[in-house]
Amino acid sequence: MSSATGERPKLAVWKFASCDGCQLSLLDCEDELLAVAEAIEIANFAEATRRVVDGPYDLSLVEGSITTAHDAERIREVRAQSKYLVTIGACATAGGIQALRNWQDLDEMASVVYASPQYLETLATSTPISHHVPVDFELRGCPVNKRQLVEVVLAFLHRRKPLVSEHSVCVECKLRGNPCVMVAHGTPCLGPVTQAGCGALCPAYNRGCFGCFGPMESPNPAALSERWSAMGVPDRDIMRAYRSFNGYASPFREESDHHEQRSSPNS
Amino acid sequence: MTTDPPVLLLREDFDALIGALERRGYAVVGPTVRDGTIVYDEISRSDEMPVGWTDEQDGGHYRLKRRDDAALFGYAVGPQSWKQFLHPSQLRLVKADRDEKGGMAFSDGDDGEPARYAFLGMRSCELHAMTIQDRVFLGSGAADSHYERRRRRIFSIGVSCGVAGGTCFCVSMETGPAVTDRTPHDLALTEVIDGDRHFFLLTAGSDEGREVLAELPVTMASEDDRAAAAERVDRAAASMGRAMSADGVRELLRENFDHPRWEDVAQRCLTCANCTMVCPTCFCTTVEDVTDLTGDHAERWRRWDSCFTMDFTWMPGGGARQSAKSRYRQWLTHKLSTWHDQFDSSGCVGCGRCITWCPVGIDLTEEVAAFRESDPQNPKSPAP
User: Fold this and answer.
1) Residue of A nearest to B267 (CA)
2) Does A256 touch chain B (CB under 8 A)?
3) Every domain of chain B and the residues it spans
4) If you average pLDDT over residues A27-46, what whole number do you get?
5) What chain A residue is nearest to B264 in terms of C-alpha separation?
6) For an engineered disulfide with A22, which of A89, A93, B124, B212 has Cβ 3.0 to 4.6 Å away?
7) How large is the ipTM?
8) Distance, in angstroms, between B34 CA and closest chain A CA?
9) Given a cut of 90, is residue A158 above it in pLDDT?
10) Per-residue model confidence (pLDDT) at position A2
11) What's residue B377's pLDDT?
C-alpha cells in the first residue's frame, strides 16, 4: 500500500513499560529486515535508528503497558498520529509481568524498594494499551514470534487479514509431531488454554507450556486446573502458573484469583 | 478373496522383511520409541522398533512400560496415526508468481515426488481408518489428488494385536483386533512368543505381498503355531480396556440434540482440538494463503484444522459454533452418527486415541453410555 502522500508507508515503533524484547524481534528478522525497510519507511524506531520522521504514521507498533499518568497521555498522542495501531507482546496486550503490581499495595512495595519513594510517580496498576485507546490488532507473545510479526506487517502492506490463529498451542504440538507432555510425561502444561503462535516451543523440548501467548480463543482454565490438581499440583502453584506474563488477561486472572482464595489459610 | 495359508518367519529373520521392502524401493515406516511414546518413523532395522516395550493407557494418561519379553509389537497404538503420511498435516497446494507483464503464473505446489512408503505394523483399527479415509478422499467422484498419489504407492503390513490397550474398543466397533480380508493389505502378521520361541505368522493379502513373502526365509506354519497365534488375538479381544455399545448410536445421538449431557461434557472440554488431531479418520483442513514481502510470490497451504477451533466455522459476524457444547456435539455427532449419512460407515474405529490424548481424559464411551442411560427408548433408563 502507499501512504496518503504516495510515498512508502511510514512505520513507527513505540515503547511503553516493557523490556524491549518485542521490538528487538523486529531487528531479529535479519533475512526479512532489508525487504521490510524497502517496502516501509521506518519513521520512528529508537532501537534501530536515532532518525525520527514526524507523524502522522501509517502503522504504529506499540510495545509495553501503561504504568504512569504520563504514558497514559502519551499513548493518546500516538493513537492520534497513527492510522493503524497494533500492540505487540504480553505487556501491551495484557499488562505484562509488571501487572503483578495490580494484586499488591503499591505504597507498601515502593517503601520497601526505594529509599525515597516520594520521587516516584506511578499508577497503581499496569494495564494493556487497549484499556486506554482503540487498538486495531493485538499480537500476542512474550516475546512476540518474529514470523508472526512479519506476517502482521505484510498483511498491513497487502491489505489483508493477518494469518494469526487463536486456537490452542495443542494444535501446533500435533502439527509438529510433539508427544503431549501432559499425557505422556505427567508434566503440567498450559498449552490447552494458551493461544498458539510460538510453534509449541517448550513442549518440543519436553517442557510444559508457560502461557506466554495468553488465553486462547475459548479457554477453559477451570477444567485444566482440575486435572493439574489431580496430578498433585498445589493450588498455590496453579495460581502462580496463571499469574505470569499474561496473568492480568481476564481468564488467567480469574483462575489465578480462584486458586489464591483456595490456597489461603483463612478461606 | 481366499486367504493364503500362513507361513512362519522367525524373529532372527525379521530384518529380512525390512530388507526385502527396501530392495523394492520402499522407505519402511514403523513403530519406534521417541520422547516416551511410540511413534511412526522411518526405520531400517528391527532393533529400532519398540523391543520389549508396551504402553499403559487410560483417559488422559499414557506411559511406556517394560514388558518381560522382547516383543516387537507388544503395545497398542501411540499418539500418531498413519494419516500423517497420506494426509500431511501441512501441505503446499499452489505456488503463484508475478510474471514480467504483471500477471500471475500459477503452478502445482505439491510438486515433489511422494515417498513410496511401506507401513510396517498397521493395526486392524488403523487399516479400517485408512479404508474410511479412502472413502472420504477417493469416494463420491471428487478424488483428492494429493491423497491419491500418496495412497497408491504404499505397501501395507498389518499386525493382529496380541495385547489390547487400556482405551481400546475395536471389538465394539467391529474393527479388530485381527487383521482380516475386510480391509485391503499386502501382508498381515501375528507375533507369537512362546517360551524360547519367538516368531511371526505371515499371510499375503495381495500379489505384491506374495512376491515379498517369496523372498523371505519362511517355513510352513504348523497347526499348533496357528492355534498359538489365534489364542493371542482372542486374548486381546477379550481384554479391551473400553467398550461402547455401537448398536443404535447413530439414532441415539441424532435424537438427543438438546440433551443436558452436552452441557455437562462442555464443562470439562478444553476445546483444545487434541481429539481431532490424533483421530485416524478426522480429515478436516483449512487453507491459508501466504505472501512474501515483495508481493511477487504467494503460496496456498492446506493444514489440519479442527471442528473445535473458532476459525473452522468463521463467517462475517463470527464463528457459527461459539460454545464448547456446540463444538463437542458437532464432533461426536459427526463421528458416530452423521458420518453414516455421509460416508456409509461410522467414523470411529475404536482405537481409543481421543480418550488417551485428551489432556483431561474425556471418554466418548462414557459419554455415549450417559446418553444411553437416559434415552427414553432404552428400557434400562430411569423413567422420565
Assistant:
1) A223
2) no
3) 7-238, 249-283+307-373
4) 84
5) A223
6) A89
7) 0.94
8) 9
9) no
10) 45
11) 63
Binary contact (A177, B39; C-beta < 8 A): yes
Q: How many Å lie between the alpha carbon of A10 and the closest alpha carbon of chain B?
A: 16
Q: What is the DSSP string of A195-253?
A: B--S-SHHHHTT-----TT-B-SS--HHHHHHHHHHTT--HHHHHHHHSSTTTTSHHHH
Mean pLDDT over A25-51 rounds to 84
Q: Is B354 on the interface with A (CB under 8 A)?
A: no
Alpha helices by DSSP H, B139-205: 145-151, 170-173
Residue A118 CA to residue B277 CA, distance in Å, equals 56
For chain B, say whether A257 makes contact (Cβ under 8 Å).
Answer: no
User: Are residues B359 and A182, on separate chains, in Cβ contact within 8 Å?
Assistant: yes
Indicate the pTM of the whole model: 0.95
**Residue B194: its H or E element:** strand B187-194
Q: For residue A3, is pLDDT > 60?
A: no
**Rounded Cα distance, B128 and A243, in Å:** 46
pLDDT (tens digit per residue) in B207-230? 999 999 999 999 999 999 999 999
| Residue A219 one-letter amino acid | P
Q: How do A10-15 and A57-63 pair as beta strands?
A: parallel
CB contact under 8 A, A192 and B272: yes
Helix ranges, chain A (H): 21-27, 30-39, 69-81, 90-94, 106-113, 146-157, 169-176, 181-185, 201-204, 221-230, 235-242, 250-263
- Residue A174 and residue B270: Cβ atoms within 8 Å? no
Mark yes or no for CB contact A170/B36 under 8 Å.
no
Nearest by CB to residue A220, choosing from B39, B63, B269, is: B269
Preferred mutation among B32, B272, B297, B330 to probe A, highest tally of A CBs within 10 A: B272
pLDDT digits (tens, 9 = 90+) for B117-164: 999 999 999 999 999 999 999 997 789 999 999 999 999 999 999 999
Mutate to test the interface with A, among B264, B270, B296 (most CBs of A within 10 A): B270
Nearest to A57 by CA among A76, A41, A37: A41
Q: Please enumerate in sequence order all residues whose Cβ is within 8 A of that of B22, keeping only pairs 6 or more positions apart, or say none.
A: B28, B44
Residues 6+ apart with CB under 8 A from B7: B201, B202, B203, B213, B218, B219, B220, B221
Bridge-based pairing of strands B155-160 and B117-123 is parallel
Handedness of CA A15, A20, A21, A23 (dihedral sign): positive
Range A10-157 has CATH code 3.40.50.700: yes
User: Mean pLDDT, to the nearest integer, of A114-133?
Assistant: 95
Residue ranges of domains in chain A: 10-157, 169-263
Q: What is the mean pLDDT of chain B?
A: 94
Residue B304 has a CB neighbour count (10 Å cut-off) of: 22
Q: Is B16 exposed, middle or buried (0-12, 13-18, 19+ CB in 10 A)?
A: middle
Please state, for a pLDDT cut of 90, what percent of chain B lies above it. 89
Distance CA(A187)–CA(A203), nearest Å, equals 10
Burial of B127 (0-12, 13-18, 19+ CB in 10 A): buried
| Residues of chain A above pLDDT 90, percent | 80
Copy the grid coordinates of residue B233: 488375538
> Touching check for A191 and chain B: CB below 8 Å?
yes
Shortest CA distance from A225: residue in chain B: B360
pLDDT tens-digit map of B270-319:
999 999 999 999 999 999 998 887 778 999 999 999 999 999 999 988 88
